[in-house]
Design goal:
By secondary structure, this protein is an alpha+beta fold. It is built from 13 helices and 10 strands. Helices cover 45% and strands 15% of the residues. The longest helix is centred in the middle third of the chain and has 37 residues.
């Protein structure tokens, strides 16, 4: 981690050193080396269950509306979660993601409550308890279903509808290219809640749905009428990817997260932090790639000249290291601000930081692959897998062009008070 700002994070927050050691020890035991495409695929879901037994799946959320019973292990076994102070939960999650990314981008799902945090934070006690037992204690996985084939990341354009019948909803629609479709025990589904009489009047017309505020539901995968279809992506193949179709799915009203129309607040609050997590996964992978390439440059030579003494090699590695360190520092700084400011999340800055970090990570790994020569293009090294995986994370949770635009629109808006582009870190 010598290249990384994560060392500075631990210096600022020494209370997290024990937690970081536990995560590193877990990875050393179960993923001792970066994953290559040539090696057998790690049993990712099994590793998540093992992480749950080690207390590494619930440290990022404080759940006041759930009990303390555990599906696996004992209270002592869950000590890793206990060593994370509540005011450093997001920073700890960022550290775990960064360390996971150093081994493989698909390890991002092994630690923390993931998307289950939305159900834990905004669900009614019966929902929060079920998700806590399954996702935190049992090591199951929670998914999220937001984008749709026709609208991509346009949340106002979503057409998945939950017709309100009082004691239940009837959910209909389709979600496109959703992660974890085979592994997730349930999904947070973003949709439009409409009264039954309004749905009957509007019929097949969908234009009016753009004016309906977003809502969110917790939907167990086993619910009747939930259909899944998988596809094979270019990268990030450790977890399934595909489509979800809802065919008049009956959903109890108790599965609503927050209140009707609360979806955009839930989405922005959760995904501002989650985008930083995905950024740090990529930055961990990029840091490992730079370190491996520097080691190779010291060992290899061109003619009689050590590769580490070739100016063009040195400058390219230096640029990559500078970009990755700067992006890492920004991401952790934003996580620290989220801890300090609570729900006052800077959505625009978090969006742009994710875009910047994944772009910088992709360039760093691309340089590393190039400097490994033809070997870097083979499945024997982790470089080509990292490149494919990071390419996918430049699209996931909002494509980078869109995320940069969020920051630009925020800065151009006359309705917002002027603010510095990069806020100073508080003492």
């Amino acid at each position: 981690m010598s290249l990384s700002e994560s060392c500075a994070v631990l210096a600022r927050h020494p209370a997290l050193k024990d937690f970081a050691s536990r995560v590193s020890d877990f990875l050393d035991m179960h993923l001792p080396e970066p994953v290559t495409e040539e090696a057998p695929r790690p049993p990712w879901l099994d590793l998540r269950k093992r992480a749950a037994q080690a207390g590494l799946t619930g440290f990022d959320v404080v759940c006041a509306n759930v009990g303390t019973r555990h599906a696996h292990g004992t209270e002592g076994d869950r000590g890793a979660a206990a060593v994370v102070p509540p005011h450093l939960a997001r920073v700890a999650q960022g550290l775990a993601m960064f360390l996971a990314g150093r081994r493989d981008c698909d390890a991002r799902e092994v630690f923390s409550s993931g998307h289950g945090a939305m159900a834990l934070r905004y669900g009614r006690p019966v929902v929060a308890q079920a998700v806590y037992d399954q996702v935190v204690c049992g090591g199951e996985l929670a998914g999220v279903a937001s984008s749709e084939p026709h609208s991509g990341s346009d949340l106002r354009g979503l057409r998945t509808v939950a017709v309100d019948h009082g004691d239940h909803f009837v959910l209909s629609g389709m979600k496109g290219l959703v992660g974890r479709v085979d592994e997730a025990t349930g999904f947070v589904v973003f949709c439009k809640v409409v009264p039954s009489e309004q749905a009957a009047v509007q019929g097949a017309d969908v234009a009016w749905l753009r004016e309906v505020p977003l809502s969110a539901l917790w939907l167990p995968t086993a619910t009747a009428g939930v259909l899944t279809e998988t596809t094979v992506p270019l990268g990030l193949r450790g977890w399934s990817l595909g489509h979800l179709r809802f065919d008049d799915v009956r959903v109890g009203s108790e599965l609503l997260l927050g209140v009707p129309g609360d979806g955009r607040r839930i989405f922005d609050t959760h995904f501002s932090g989650w985008r930083l997590m995905m950024a740090l996964v990529c930055l961990g992978a990029a840091t490992a790639a730079i370190e491996e390439t520097m080691s190779r440059a010291r060992r290899r030579s061109v003619g009689r000249t050590c590769l580490a003494n070739v100016p063009s090699v040195v400058s390219r590695l230096g640029i990559a290291a500078a970009e990755v360190q700067a992006a890492t520092a920004w991401c952790f700084s934003l996580l620290e601000r989220i801890e300090q400011e609570g729900d006052e999340v800077d959505v625009a800055a978090c969006s742009a930081a994710k875009a910047l970090a994944t772009d910088a990570s992709y360039r760093a790994v691309d340089i590393g692959l190039q400097l490994h020569g033809s070997e870097g293009y083979t499945r024997r090294t982790p470089m080509e897998k990292r490149l494919r995986d990071i390419r996918g994370l430049r699209i996931a949770d909002g494509p980078n062009d869109t995320l940069y635009g969020v920051l630009a629109q925020s800065l151009l808006s006359e309705t917002r008070p002027a603010a510095p582009l990069v806020a100073q870190r508080r003492a």
